[in-house]
Structures are given as C-alpha cells and as structure tokens.
Amino acid sequence: MAYTQILIAGFGGQGVLFAGKVLAYKGLEEEKQISWLPSYGPEMRGGTANCSVIISDTPVGSPIVSVPDILVVMNLPSFDKYENAVNAGGSVFIDSTLIERKAERTDINAYYIPATKMARDLGLPTLANMIIIGKVIRETGVIDMDGLRDALAKTVSAKHQDLIEANLKAIEAGYNYI
Amino acid sequence: MSKVLMKGNEAIAEAAIRAGCRHYFGYPITPQTEIAAYMAKRMPKIGGTFLQAESEISAINMVYGVSSAGLRVMTSSSSPGVSLKQEGISYLAGSDLPALIVNVQRGGPGLGGIQPSQSDYYQATKGGGHGDYHLIVLAPASVQEMADFTVKAFELADKYRMPAMLLADGTMGQMMEPVVLPAENSGKTYEKPWAVRGTENKREHNIINSLYLVPEQLEVKNLERYERYKEVEKNETLVEEYLTDDADICVVAFGIAARVSKNAINAAREKGIKAGLIRPMTLWPFPSEAIARAAERVKGFISVELSMGQMIDDIRLAESCKKPVVLCNRVGGMIPSPEQVLKAIEDMEGGER
Predict the structure, then answer these.
(1) CATH (domain of A121)
(2) Candidates B3, B263, B339; nearest CB to A61
(3) In the A/B pair of chains, how many CB contacts fall below 8 A?
(4) Whole-number pLDDT of residue B239
(5) Residues A36 and B177: beta-carbon distance below 8 Å
(6) SS3 (DSSP) at A30
(7) Residue pLDDT, tens place only, B279-307
(8) B-chain residues near A6 (CB < 8 A)
(9) Which of A114, B157, B309, B334 is paired with B323 by a 20 to 30 Å CA distance?
(10) Would the CB atoms of B114 and A41 count as touching at under 8 Å?
C-alpha cells in the first residue's frame, strides 16, 4: 500500500502551490486518498512558500508532511531547510538553474533539472514548476501521465483554460529530460 | 456522489448554502477569508445575501436580525474576530436564536498570528460572552467534516433554538481534501412559530428579546434553557473512538491534533504499545462518558492540544482524576508532530505512574 508524502518548496510566485494541486487533482482522478496543505499568509510573491501533498491508498492521517518521500525544491533556502528531513531512500528534485549545490546526503536519490532555464528556452518562463513535476512523474510514478489533461483542466481556473496546453508541454519536457 | 477537491473553508461555505443558508455576514480575516470570498461569489447568484459588514460586531448583530426572522444565517471569522462577536453571541443565546458561527482559529492572544491554533477552546465551550449559556460546538477533523458538520450545526441550532459553533483551525480551513458535498436542500428543517415575520393579523406578536428585568422571570428563562441543554447533552454528543478497545494509553485530541495523533498511535502500535484515541467531535457537549469508560482500564490519558492545555480540564473532570492526564502541546501557530505525540505515548508507557 503506497503512502507517499510530498513536499514542494520555493519562492512565492514560482507556482509551488499550483504544482501541488496538479498532483492532488490527478491523484483524485486515480481514486487515491489525497490531502493538500499550503503554507499560507504573507509568503505570497517573494517570500518562501511550500505545500504538503499526500497521495495514498489508505486514509490520510496528518496532512502535514514533515518527513517527505518526495521533496521538490525551487530555491536554495528550501533545499537547505528540508534536505535533512527527507525520508531515507526518498527522492529530492532540484531546480539546478537556481540551486548550484549538490545534495549532501547519500541515502536519498537526487535529481537535478535546470527547470527554470528549460522553461525560459521553451518560451514558458512561468512553468518551471510543471517541468519539475514532469521529472517527478517520470522518476517516482507517484501519478500517471495518462489522463493528465483532465486533471489539469480541473486545476487551471475557468478563465485560464487556454493555458492547459502550455502546462502539458512543460510537464512533457520535464518528463523527457534525461 | 462524486468527490471534489476543496479547501475546508470552501466546503463550509458550499455546505451552508446547500443546508439552506441564504444570509452570510462577515468581515475578512486570515485564515478563513475563503468562506467570505466564496459567499460573495455565490450568494448573489442564488438570491442570497452576502454582506461584508463594517466590523465583526455588526456582522453578528445582522445574524441576530436574520435569525429573528426565522431564516438560516451564519457568520465566520478567526480568533480575534470571534472575540469581537462575543457580545452578540451572548445575545443570541439569551434570545434563544439559532445561528452558525464559524471560528477558524489562529494563534493568540491578542492579534496573535495567522497560523493554526486551538486556543479558543475555553471561549467556545465555557461561554465566551457573559451569562449562563452554552453553544453547541462541533470540531471537524477533515474537509468532509467541515461540510457535514456545517449542515449538522444548522440542524441542531434550529432544533434546540441555540447558536452553534464550528470550531476549526487554520489547517482545516486551508487544506484541500476530496469531499462529497451534501445534497441541495439537505439538513432537517424545523417550524419556527416564534419567528418575527409579520402576524398577518392572525396571531399575537412574537417578541425576540434577551432583556428580563424581573429576576423571577429571568431565572425561569435560565432554568428552561438549561433543561434544553440537558437534552442536547443526552442526545447530541458525538465522539470517535480509534483503537480504544484494548488501549493502555488513551490519547484525547480533536481537529488537526487528532489527525496528528492517529499517525502517532499507528506508530506506537507498530512498536507494540497499545495506544488509542478518543476524538471529541462535539466539544460541547463533551464526550465525558467515553472518557470515564476509558478511565476504568487505561494507564493514563494524553491530551494533545494546540493550546496551553484547555480541553485537559474537561478530560480530568470526566475521569474524576482517576488516572493521570498529561499534556502534549505546541502553541502560537505551531503543530505537534507525530514524533512528539509518539514520545509522549512512550514516556507514559515506560514511566512509573
């Protein structure tokens, strides 16, 4: 029985909460048990933001992720803060455009992906978050790629439905990054 | 019934609408503003009223007005705002008016912080305003319960003619979980022959009032009200017991603290420690019987709270100080970790008491 605890952290404005929502909505589509908990308050735009997502076959206990199986970091302060929290054998996904250092721990899988640069090159500068999510899907299989469009349609607000394709493109780019 | 992913705050708002609430009055405050935002969007579309009052005090008195007319009505706020509402809540209780007050608690006292807390337990369960009265206090521990307890609160408030409070916290308000929303027009409704909405010259005037200058009359009012409270205590106490059948150590926690505690209890069981959880779903009435029953066989109780220890008093009263009760807490917007709760369980298991 899988019980996967995910922590996504970065600066406000990087789409950290949105990235978590995509995972949560897709998990719901796959009939998993879900919780999504944001940090809230003055962190928006510039401060640090994070969100806890749990995707599970069994009921979710505490929605607060303190020992993540999957850690996504989109800035150095978040990496410094949470690296030691990762569950042994867990995975950390690092935006290597913004974070120069490597993981210090050897008992976790570290994946480096220049998401911010790739997003810029693809002409999707605001979607580095989705590029990392693509990589997370590839390496962990926590959700399936199949049916992602439906989950995105639910995550993206009604007036931004035109952005679904761009999001998909970014996720695929991350998924295919070796 | 399909599940949707919703924030706890949004689930409260949608459930209230589906329970027939068409009047919402409030004033924005983190971490419950999504309730007001949701109502602002929805109410005008369904012929309801959303009104952002000039203050929390105005909002609760608008609630008094609508409730007097016999309609389902609510307000919501977070800790400092709920303090401001206390006068109005006492007046609602003194006038035997049903209403829903939502408190998505944050750290205090004073302006405190915006992170989750459970430190308004005393205020919610022991009065808050002046005079002898109770609120029915429901404590949701999931987004599903945020929705379900909203409907239940309206039902109970109408049934017993008293205000009900949903006592949540910042985590419950902000987190998203799958929820099956209640059906439209759900929730039992009750005749309200006492409401003031025109006599059509067919009956005597109804009067909604909390002023009784003749002490004999005021005493009767108080005694009548407490008869009703006895009925509530008898009929409406809600509690979840988790792995308590064979438990040596009994954790007591509500809301987010209960979620954290379940993780700790599962971890303790893996280590061979028989721990269980009593989760009050109503804080008033408090599930004293469940606690008293557990006191017959457990080694001790651990009260897990996001406060300096408020519910712990009710646990001690319920078990008549038969067994030790220890506090495991964080305050100021911090949340106990499962590891902290597990340590408290291990300490009780190993300690000679």
Answers:
(1) 3.40.920.10
(2) B263
(3) 61
(4) 98
(5) yes
(6) coil
(7) 999 999 999 999 999 999 999 999 999 99
(8) none
(9) B334
(10) yes
